[in-house]
Design brief:
This protein is α+β, with helices and mostly antiparallel strands. It has 2 domains: 79 residues; 116 residues, Cupredoxins -  blue copper proteins (Immunoglobulin-like). The protein is 34% helix and 24% strand. It is built from 4 helices and 11 strands. Strands 8-5-1-2-3-11 form a 6-stranded mixed β-sheet. A 5-stranded mixed β-sheet has the order 4-10-9-6-7. A hairpin with a 2-residue loop joins strand 1 and strand 2. The longest helix has 33 residues. The radius of gyration is 26 Å and the shape is elongated.
């Protein structure tokens, strides 16, 4: 009796699966709310830190997997190594060598999120309330101007945002321009950002603030220098006291 040869297992599905997974991963690196598709120096600093930490984590994972593979493939390979070496090398020296540079780099990156102290930097007062963002500016004549849910800035120029809340804690986040920062009632937090080029950048509330939390979105419009003053001229004056809007859905 002649046995029929078993055909080799087909792996036609492997390449499409790998390609689909790669496309899915790359899709997360772009988009209006992607912190990796940066459009300003503050966001770029955060993205650089993310990539450095990802590379470092990948190397550490590979190193640990190599040690695990050696333990399975060559049992007893480390039997002659004193236990103190493993404790000191793996428990103290290795984490110190890896984490210390990451800590220094993270602190250096974080400094780019703080104001420079330059009085020439434009300032905008930001007030969060359920379910609205209010932005108050001063023009060249000293008049106070206001916009709701859209922050107008000049592209290529740093802007200092003085952020507070009129009711509960909110989170101010424009992923493509800067990191997250809380808007806290009775307290002002400061954030500096800059848009490299004119455009519209989406922002969201990054702190759960109530039933309409998902609707509490805003946008930053960066204008060319020659258009910025004209845009400010279209905004309403805000000389009246700021009154909190009633709570509820808009």
């Amino acid at each position: 009796m002649r046995l029929k040869a078993t055909p080799p297992r087909r792996i036609w599905f492997v390449r499409p699966t790998i390609a689909g997974a790669a496309a899915l991963l790359l899709a997360g690196c772009s988009g209006p709310l992607s912190a990796l598709d940066t459009a300003g120096p503050a966001a770029a600093s955060i993205a650089d830190l993310w990539w450095v930490m990802l590379i470092g984590a990948t190397l550490i994972f590979a190193f640990v997997m190599i040690l695990l593979a050696l333990a399975f493939l060559r049992p007893g390979i480390g039997r002659g190594t004193p236990a103190s070496w493993w404790l000191i090398g793996g428990g103290l020296a290795f984490p110190a060598v890896v984490l210390t540079p990451l800590l220094v780099y993270a602190l250096w990156s974080g400094e780019r999120l703080f104001p420079t102290g330059d009085p020439a930097v434009a300032q905008v007062d930001v007030v969060a309330r359920q379910w609205e963002w209010t932005f108050t500016y001063r023009n060249a004549a000293g008049q106070r101007l206001r916009s709701s849910n859209t922050l107008h800035i000049e592209a290529g120029q740093p802007v200092q945002l003085n952020i507070t809340s009129a009711d509960v804690i909110h989170g101010f986040w424009v992923p493509r321009l800067a990191g997250k920062i809380d808007a806290i009632p009775g307290h002002t937090t400061v954030l500096q950002l800059k848009a490299d080029a004119p455009g519209r950048y989406r922002g969201v509330c990054a702190e759960f603030c109530g039933v309409a939390h998902l609707e509490m979105q805003f946008a930053i419009e960066a204008h060319a220098s020659e258009d910025f003053n004209a845009v400010l001229g279209t905004l309403a004056q805000a000389d009246a006291p700021d009154v909190a809007a009633p709570r509820g859905r808009p």
